[in-house]
């Protein structure tokens, strides 16, 4: 009880020095969390993809760069459809399917206002991925829906008819969790005079789904997104150029079959006479890292410099603050305070200031540090940035506190009382 009273009295007497340490702690914590996000953030995103599509066994089909504007390739509808069927029916292929963005422009103010209510509930981590005035949506085929286990919290999921008997005036959709407070099951989102979305179910909160684009950032939070079915037949045929731009993904069942299966697919492509590449997820990730290496290096160096300066200032401030209290500690030791009592006073003060500072820096980081790689990728939050940041700051404070503590206890009370005083 006495140590607690001394603790609070000591803090009140040195409020300005503690405020200075408090601000330095906020800066150091924020810089450390940012640095850890830069170092481990991409690998964390890759890990999320790997849980759904094993990186070493997963691929996507893609038109080579030199054939992107080749109109003759776009006309090979039959050959491209044959390749898709070959992949779908290949016994060595496990998960497969089509997924592509299909954002729809909003034409009506009432729909727009409701949609703003939906995206207002979205974390800032996801908001930057939305184009304002467009409903964020992804189209998936029946194979993707079956392979990737799209869960529905309430309502119903897609059935066979949704993929085989399209209703082009009223398309069934599964809505993200944030739609649940704005719409109900069977509500319609009118997009034009001829077209509306009909909500048939809602996704659970925080549902992540593999989407199109770079593999590294492919796992996206679907809370403010709609999922719509791609119907068999003409709808897929009309989207072949988009599908063959990395929107058809698949994984091979067994690692031992990867080389032979890819060789067979390559042979089928040559036989069909179409220009298509089979891009491995491993290669896609490698290409992304190579393209982003300069950006990553610059950001890491910038944050490392900030971390070094902030930590150096923090350690110096903590040691100086404790050394300035030699007389106080000398008097306490004269009245019977043990070394452990002195240590607990120092530790409790530092722990309280650090805890408050870390809460504030975490809130700032959650709201301001939601993008990495020059805003190219969403930053997810977890132990690798929040946890490692906290442990790093805690270790630094304990070490700096111990340095000052041992400098104090090696002196006699008389030496401390006669030492430096404020």
What does this structure look like?
The chain is an alpha+beta fold. Mean pLDDT is 82; it is low at 123-130. The longest helix has 43 residues, at 281-323. Strands 1, 2, 5, 6, 7, 8, 9, 12, 13 and 14 form a ten-stranded mixed beta sheet that branches. The chain has a two-stranded antiparallel sheet with strand order 3-4. Strands 10-11 form a two-stranded antiparallel sheet. It folds into two domains: 2-48 and 287-417, no CATH class; 93-252, no CATH class. It is built from 16 helices and 16 strands. Strand 8 (188-190) and strand 9 (196-202) form a beta hairpin. The two termini are 26 Å apart. It has helices spanning 2-13, 15-52, 71-74, 77-89, 109-120, 124-127, 142-147, 160-164, 234-237, 240-243, 258-272, 281-323, 326-334, 339-368, 383-409, 413-417, and strands spanning 58-62, 93-101, 104-105, 134-135, 137-140, 154-155, 170-175, 188-190, 196-202, 208-210, 219-221, 226-229, 245-252, 277-280, 371-372, 377-378. Helix 2 runs antiparallel to helix 15 (383-409), helix 12 (281-323) packs parallel to helix 15 and helix 14 packs antiparallel against helix 15 (383-409).
Topology:
Elements: H1 2-13, H2 15-52, E1 58-62, H3 71-74, H4 77-89, E2 93-101, E3 104-105, H5 109-120, H6 124-127, E4 134-135, E5 137-140, H7 142-147, E6 154-155, H8 160-164, E7 170-175, E8 188-190, E9 196-202, E10 208-210, E11 219-221, E12 226-229, H9 234-237, H10 240-243, E13 245-252, H11 258-272, E14 277-280, H12 281-323, H13 326-334, H14 339-368, E15 371-372, E16 377-378, H15 383-409, H16 413-417
Parallel strand pairs: 5-12, 7-9
Antiparallel strand pairs: 1-13, 1-14, 2-5, 2-13, 3-4, 6-9, 7-12, 8-9, 10-11, 15-16
